[in-house]
Amino acid sequence: VAAIAETLAFDLYGTLVDPIRIWQQLERHVGDAAVQVSELWRQKQLEYTFRLTAMEQYQPFDQVTRKALEYALATFEHELAEEQDRVILAEYDHLEPFPDVHPGLDQLRDAGCHMVVLSNGTPGMLSGAVRSAAIGSYFHHLISVDEVQTYKPAPRVYRYAAARLSQPIEKVRLISSNPFDVIGAAAAGMQVAWINRSGSVFDTLGTTPPLTARTLTELVDRLLEA
Ligand code: LAC
């Protein structure tokens, strides 16, 4: 295998593990509304992080995730008993990896990439998620924004990650499916790659990154060409 001498910082939710497929666990509680609830849950979760950052405040991601779930359920006129709520939130630490994740990470590791996770999740959420998805061994560190008490896409997050890696920021590449994360990392001076599994339109707030791939296995080819 040809060598790729890169330091890669991976986003977690939406990039390595799928936060929408949790609708399968929601279905027995909310029936047909499950997909819509899971989508609104994710949307509200991110909106709350952006708002906290704008307010220069911080609440840990597990709390933000719980509050966003309550909002999404209430919107579809569902209220769950505390125990059901707890069960669903526990499922959030067992999200499924996308099918290309294991083969992609295998190839990137074999090519010599130095890989870490950089995520909004709390340290507990990160270790739970990577353990459940069986991807922990690929990563040298699980870097949580909790260590700087502010959310992506604040530049402080990306600068902190580069400092943790003892690398100049322009030597680190953020790998994310979330355009807001890609644009934020690029604005802070990182290299980036966008994983666009669903063939979406990139956010018009920024320019589509030159390095875009549909899957992590395709990312390997793109990095070899670069
Ligand atoms: C994360 C969110 C942004 O993992 O998906 O940081």
Task: Write structural notes for this entry.
The chain is an alpha/beta fold. Helix content is about 45%, strand content about 10%. It is built from 9 helices and 6 strands. A 6-stranded parallel β-sheet has the order 3-2-1-4-5-6. Helix 6 links the parallel strand 2 and strand 3. The relative contact order is 0.17. The site of lactic acid has 10 residues, from loops.
Derived from helix and strand composition plus strand pairing, the structural class reads: alpha/beta
Sheet with most strands: 6 strands, parallel
Low-confidence stretches: none
Radius of gyration equals 17 Å
Percent helix: 40-55%
Mean pLDDT: 95
Number of E strands: 6
Helix and strand pattern: EHHHHHEHEHEHEEH
Q: Which strands sit side by side, in order, in the main sheet?
A: 3-2-1-4-5-6
Helical stretch tally: 9
Shape: globular
Strand content: 5-15%
* Small-molecule components bound: lactic acid
The separation of the N and C termini measures 16 Å
